[in-house]
């Protein structure tokens, strides 16, 4: 991973993290898209997301950094290093949220990165390598599915044009929402930058979104990899008819078929070891009238596992099941996206673990159940992640909560690790 600072420099950067500054930024960001229930609705490329990016870009001047934005809207703050010929170390996450999301998913990674950049300056460390903070576009995929648009396009995993063509539930294309956001950044004088720029390493801090760290009482975790994920759309086609008059033998009820197929798919995904994650999160019934037999049902599948071979085997059994008739209805299973599992490189996870030890932080190793932009960055440069615990493992929920002490501990670990990587 190249030369590292001595650990006292890295420690000094960790100690320069200011809890009050981090707390203030978290509270401010939570006002952009604040919900009445305490959560956040800052959907990708909506007015709140754009405002959050403008605010982040404004922070560049005080850091002595330069803000710039690429064609998919990823916003970078670049802090120069003493050797400008070197590729930068990069940290960051995302500012968009779920529709009923929390204050920390994505936001903490961006704000911890911002605080790390400040801490480096406050500790009086001049990094040899440039250090950049990035906010990736549309990680969640809640408004425009699939998610991780910014990192996937940046890394060449998906095309810009196909990504711009994605439409939200109101028919608005990602491209037109992006153009509005870019126009606001242009008006603020933020220059454009190319996609796919080289990086020395990428480290993303994120909330765990699961129960492991809280259970073991650790303030941070070193992430060893991210499980793979496949999204599908299933459609059942039957025929609409009168609910009161149509006898059973004459019904082709798409909802009856969809319920039976959904139960069989869930059963096919059940594993002894409880490692498969299978979720139906969207279920749409048409025409949606109390006294009309449904003629069409569409539902989503989110399928995850750490091994690609298991995802392949489950996808094949899903295809077989969907090929059968269900309550006389025809089913189609359409793959929407597939992201392969990744293992992060051992030298980088070792550097993060060593840094935690230097800071006297307990940081067990774990896999990520959620996907993150880091899953694409892993194909672009050495990549790893740090987790901080969230209360009750709760996430994608307005009550998502991270204790400030743990957010600070994770940020200190991030800042010290970045200082080592930049040295
Ligand atoms: C990211 O939000 C995920 O669904 O894993
Ligand atoms: Mn996230
Ligand atoms: Mn999320």
Describe, in plain words, how this protein is organized in 3D.
There is one protein chain. α1 packs antiparallel against α14, α2 runs antiparallel to α5 and α5 (107-122) packs across α14 (404-422). A hairpin with a 5-residue loop joins β1 (66-69) and β2 (75-79). This protein folds into two domains: 3-226 and 341-422, Aminopeptidase; 228-339, Alpha-Beta Plaits (2-Layer Sandwich), CATH 3.30.70. The strands form two sheets. Strands 1, 2, 3, 4, 5, 6, 12, 13 and 14 form a nine-stranded mixed sheet that branches. Strands 7, 8, 9, 10 and 11 form a five-stranded antiparallel sheet that branches. Helices cover 35% and strands 20% of the residues. The protein has 423 residues and is an alpha/beta fold. The protein contains 14 helices and 14 strands. The site of one manganese (II) ion has 6 residues, from loops. The site of one manganese (II) ion has 4 residues, from loops.
Feature tags:
Alpha-Beta Plaits; binds manganese (II) ion; alpha/beta; 14 helices; nine-stranded mixed sheet; Aminopeptidase; 2 domains; binds glyoxylic acid; five-stranded antiparallel sheet; 423 residues
């Amino acid at each position: 991973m190249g030369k590292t600072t001595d650990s006292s420099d890295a420690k000094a950067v960790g100690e320069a993290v200011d809890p009050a500054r981090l707390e203030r930024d978290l509270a401010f960001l939570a006002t952009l898209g604040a919900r009445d229930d305490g959560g956040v609705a800052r959907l990708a490329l909506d007015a709140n997301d754009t405002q959050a990016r403008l605010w982040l870009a404004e922070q560049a001047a005080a850091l002595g950094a330069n803000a710039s934005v690429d064609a998919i809207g990823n916003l970078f703050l670049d802090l120069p290093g003493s050797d400008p010929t070197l590729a930068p170390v990069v940290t960051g996450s995302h500012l968009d949220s779920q529709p009923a999301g929390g204050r920390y998913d994505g936001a903490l990674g961006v704000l911890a990165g911002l605080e790390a950049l400040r801490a480096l300056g406050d500790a009086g460390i001049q990094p040899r390598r440039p250090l950049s903070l990035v906010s990736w576009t549309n990680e969640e995929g809640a408004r425009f599915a699939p998610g991780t648009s910014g990192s996937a396009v940046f890394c060449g995993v998906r095309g810009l044009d196909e990504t711009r063509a994605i439409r939200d539930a109101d028919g608005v294309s990602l491209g037109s929402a992006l153009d509005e956001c870019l126009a606001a950044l242009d008006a603020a004088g933020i220059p454009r930058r190319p996609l796919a720029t080289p990086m020395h390493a990428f480290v993303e801090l994120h909330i765990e979104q699961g129960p492991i760290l809280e259970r073991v009482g650790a303030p941070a975790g070193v992430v060893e990899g991210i499980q793979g994920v496949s999204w599908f759309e299933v459609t059942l086609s039957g025929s609409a008819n009168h609910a009161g008059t149509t006898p059973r033998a004459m019904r082709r009820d798409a909802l009856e078929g969809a319920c039976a197929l959904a139960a069989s798919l869930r059963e096919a995904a059940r594993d002894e070891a409880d490692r498969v994650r299978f979720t139906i999160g969207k279920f749409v019934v048409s025409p949606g009238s109390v006294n009309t037999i449904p003629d069409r049902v569409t539902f989503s599948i989110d399928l995850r596992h750490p091994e690609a071979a298991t995802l392949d085997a489950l996808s094949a059994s899903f295809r077989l099941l969907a090929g059968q008739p269900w309550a006389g209805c025809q089913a189609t299973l359409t793959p929407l996206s597939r992201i392969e599992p990744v293992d992060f490189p051992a030298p980088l996870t070792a550097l993060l673990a060593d840094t935690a030890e230097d800071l006297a932080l307990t940081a067990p190793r774990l896999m990520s159940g959620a996907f993150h932009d880091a899953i694409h960055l892993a194909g672009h440069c050495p990549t790893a992640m740090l987790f901080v615990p969230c209360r009750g493992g709760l996430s994608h929920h307005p009550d998502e909560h991270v204790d400030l002490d743990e957010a600070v501990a994770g940020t200190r670990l991030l800042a010290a690790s970045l200082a080592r990587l930049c040295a």
